[in-house]
Amino acid sequence: MGFRLVLGCGTVCRQVTEQLPDRDGDRSLVITDDESTVETLREESVPARDADPTDPATIANVDRPDLIFVASDRTDVNRATLEAARDRFPEAVIVAYLGGNATDTDRDRFDELADAVVDPDGAIAAQVLDDAASPSAEAAIELREFLAGIDGRLAVVAHDNPDPDAIASAVALVDIAESVGVDADACYFGEISHQENRAMVNLLDLDLRNLAPDASISEYSAFALVDHSRPGVNDQLPEDLHVDIVIDHHPPRGPVPGEFVDLRQGAGATSTILAEYLDRFDVAFDVATATALLYGIRIDTNDFTREVSPDDFRAASLLWPHVDTSLLDQIEQPSLEGETLETIAKAIKNRIQRGSVAVASVGRIGDRDALPQAADQLLTMDGIETTLVFGFNDEMVFLSARSRAADVDLGETLRDGFDRIGSAGGHADMAGAQLEIGILGSADDEEEVESIVSVVEEVITNRFFEAIDTRPGVPVGAYTQTSEWLFTQRGERDDGESA
Q1: What is the pTM of this model?
Q2: Which portions of the sequence form the region Disordered (predicted)?
Q3: Structural domain boundaries of the chain?
């Protein structure tokens, strides 16, 4: 952690200082005006100094601590100590013990100055101390300071054709930015076509800005990326754009730019990270934002059954009291459109199965969001553990894959199979890719188009099966000449699911 400074040492302080010598790599100092306590602490190998913690001169020459614990038994003493400590160390994390006789005025003052307050009837001090000193708490303080330094308007950009996790994360970061006085917009390129995603935006009345590919972004002074981590990759921002903030839970596929970067691959959703930030910033949970965040977590973790972490459950518990459950039910149960049902039917009918792996082409599509639904439906069939469904739209092929097999990493599988001829990425059990067909637009007639489509279908199917069978990390070499002829190298890489 670094340097911990304990000011005052009453009953609660003793619970904490007993653990201080055991904290590897930490440096600590206790300052208290109780001489006998100082002697006892020194005998226990805890550095201690006999001085008045309420006197600003006492800490005037103390090195900047990473964490301050205000810990005498008296409320008035702790309040004076807290005021002196905050004035001397405005950027430090401060945990303050309230004491046993606090007034409402005292409580307000403690809440104003301390990052965490230990109530005599509340949590154990050592647990609160560890929580306040956690990396996520430090990240929240860093994010607050960074946002406060933005001069102008902030664009919070989700990835193209955003899913619920990206949408909710963008809206939540806008709420956080506005809580520190920064004007911000939640932005995205592409379209929101999935019926559940549209229902989420419409029912919750979420404020989103849809950017056209040629839209000017000069009005923005700063840029944040959520649920993806590189400009120009799965968004339509310039690749050389200066990025200020990146918050994501996907594994990066290259250097991640950004002045403030929070990549948590252990989290099941980016919405989990944003829910925690809202809580640490003490921003009141807006009903629409809370409902969107919970839905984002549920979608990305498949209702807490896929790549879920303890942080996801904690975030859900924070959000649940503020969620509009009736709207959530309406979002989760929209009527399926005819085209989606037709796509699912085609996937079932056209599937090619080898062992527990099924691949299906659904031909021409108008709604790419039907592909993951079809992949999910195939996965429910008896004996199938891994699925790939793909379809054609203009000169693009969109792929969506799902798996519940323990020995399959779909993100790596799609990268091995298709990164050389397109962009691919995702998680172990959910991934996507998009490939550009370089010659489809030059075909003279429908018969020629169908011939090309037939060859592409064979290439994609065989490359996927070969990538599944090839051990991780070994590039797929088959069909290289055919692939290079059919596909145009795009030079982009997708850090998240693109279909």
Answers
A1: 0.59
A2: 36-57
A3: 3-133, 143-332, 338-486
CA atoms in the 13 A half-sphere facing the CB of 278? 27
How does strand 422-426 pair with strand 430-436?
antiparallel
Domain 338-486 has what CATH class?
alpha beta
User: 286: buried, middle or exposed (CB in 10 Å: 19+, 13-18, 0-12)?
Assistant: middle
Q: Which residues have CB under 8 Å from 331's CB, separation 6+?
A: 196, 199, 200, 203, 204, 291, 295
pLDDT digits (tens, 9 = 90+) for 121-178: 654 555 555 555 555 677 888 898 899 899 999 999 999 889 999 999 999 999 999 9
Q: In the β-sheet with 67-70, what is the strand arrangement from edge to edge?
A: 48-50, 27-32, 3-7, 67-70, 93-97, 116-118
Instruction: Give the separation between CA 27 and CA 420, rounded to whole angstroms.
Output: 50
Kindly tell me if the per-residue pLDDT of 492 is higher than 50. Answer: no
Tokens 């154990």 sit on residue? 124
Confidence of residue 2 (pLDDT cuts 50, 70, 90): low
Spatial neighbors of 302 by CB under 8 A, at least 6 apart, are none
Burial (Cβ within 10 Å: 0-12, 13-18, ≥19) of residue 45:
exposed
Task: For residue 23, give the nearest of 126, 147, 97, 138 by alpha carbon.
Answer: 126
Please tell me the distance from the alpha carbon of residue 103 to that of residue 101, in angstroms, as a whole number. 7
- DSSP conformational letter for 49: E
Beta strand pairing status for 396-403 and 386-393?
Answer: antiparallel
Is 1.10.600.10 the CATH classification of the domain at 3-133?
A: no
Helix ranges (H only) for 58-148 are 75-88, 104-113, 125-132, 135-148
Residue 349: pLDDT over 80: yes
For the chain, the C-alpha Rg in angstroms (whole number) is 27
C-alpha to C-alpha distances, 341 to 250, 346, 351, 403, nearest whole angstrom: 30, 9, 15, 21
| Closest-CA residue to 244 (of 313, 342, 156, 364) | 156
**Separation of alpha carbons 453 and 456, rounded Å:** 5
Cβ distance 27 to 1 under 8 Å? no
22-41 pLDDT tens trace: 444 568 899 999 998 898 88
CB 115 within 8 A of CB 144: no
CB 96 within 8 A of CB 118: yes
176 token code pair:
């956080």
- Dmax over CA atoms of the chain, in Å, equals 94
If one compares 271 and 193, the residue with the highest pLDDT of the two is 271
